[in-house]
Write a structure and sequence with these properties.
This protein is mainly α. A two-stranded parallel sheet has the order 1-2.
């Protein structure tokens, strides 16, 4: 079993390199940051999913084409779209 996870973080210090390419693609190991590693360990610790089975996915962008970080995550409509993976 694999688990695909999208991580929205405050900024690049938590999430590593800014992911490029199409939203929804799996991130390469050199694109993940400390928050990804922490999330992978927590998921493995509280579930039966091994760390190797947790993969991360490129997040969606907001309606302006920006990666949602910081205060952009405070806007209800934008956050709802990002969390439900609905893109209009």
């Amino acid at each position: 079993m694999t688990l695909r996870v999208v991580l929205y973080a405050e900024g690049s210090l938590e999430s590593g390199k800014r992911p490029r390419g199409i939203p929804g693609r799996d991130l390469a190991s050199d694109e993940i940051g400390p928050a990804h590693i922490l999330m992978r360990r927590v998921i493995a610790d509280v579930s039966s999913i091994p760390e190797a089975a947790v993969t991360f996915v490129t997040p969606l962008r907001d309606r302006f084409g920006h990666h949602a970080t910081g205060t952009r995550l405070h806007h209800g409509a934008a956050l709802k779209r990002l969390l439900t993976w609905r893109w209009r």
